[in-house]
Design a protein that fits this description.
The protein is built from 19 helices and no strands. The chain has helices spanning 4-13, 19-26, 31-59, 63-73, 84-102, 108-112, 116-139, 144-155, 159-169, 176-203, 208-218, 222-232, 234-249, 251-270, 276-282, 288-302, 307-330, 334-338, 346-365. The longest helix has 29 residues, at 31-59. The radius of gyration is 20 Å and the shape is globular.
Length: 367
Amino acid sequence: MSDPSSSRQSPIGADLYGEIYLAETLDAAPSRQRFGAYLPGLVVVAIAAAAATYLSEHYGLPVILAGLLIGLSLNFISGDERVTPGLDLCSTNFLRWGIVLLGSQITVMQISSLGLLPFLALITIMALVIFSGVLAARALGQGKYVGLLAGGATAICGASAALAIYAVIGRDRLDQHRFTFTLVGISLASAVAMSIYPILAQQFDFTDRQAGFLMGAAIHDVAQSLGGGFSFSRGAGEVATIVKLTRVTLLAPVVALIGIALGSAATTASAGGGGKNKGFMAHLRLPWFITAFFAVVALNSLVDMPEVLREYGLFLSKALLLLAVIGTAMRSRLDALMSEGWQGLVPVIVATLVSFVASFLFALQFI
């Protein structure tokens, strides 16, 4: 007779994308009852999102950073079980649909317009940044998952990438408070970069193309990356947009590779190496939101989508990701978050510096 505790642990350990966790929290309740269970948490998160948007529009604070800070300040609310289903819905399903809708802003033609050399430079920079994040985290004894999160989010598109990568790593492998701390560091680094990088580009007499590549390749979040580019010049902003959207497109394959690698390693270890090939093949199946992201990009490339749909797609994507960030922040343990100290930010700082230096050198020499 099998051990009941092991039968409970094994599916959760393999739940890379949170599907089992979400299914267990929903049970088999009717749709109307489930909506009623979601409502308190959704209302709280929506109010926090409205406050974050107000702060962003009136005081220039990045909306993701504002949402993080407000979510953390309302952390005590998560102690009320009535809000838990709504918070979990925001940090899981809303996150995934937000990533899917990002695909409505990207076409294959935009990526191809970047050119071969800048594209290869971008791939190299991203690989260096992810590797540096992993090395920094391991040097401090924080583990590879922290490094993958910090390096991957810095290399791709900041908070959006952090949310997607964390969905793959899973709560059982990395504490939620550790993820939130990394998210705060990434948002702060992106805001600082948006203010400093355009000034440095002007000091070194960068052309619009060089400055645009630097802003698009080195600044984490999409809004800050484009803001830094257009603050230099319109031409630099247009180049930054193409470079940044190319990085966003690479979110799906990078997250898929991380999921395959982590899933394969976990299966191999649990099977003692005997089920290596079977485990690897089992994890070649991509999570649905990554597959849907590719499908939306393909559709947007093949069909001339009306501008109004693209605008609504961008608005919904930003809104869903903001709600996901706030829901995640509210579920984080503030005491554990505060205990991290400055060393918890080192992987993000190292990855940010590597991203800037590599992007700067490529822009200076080859762009």
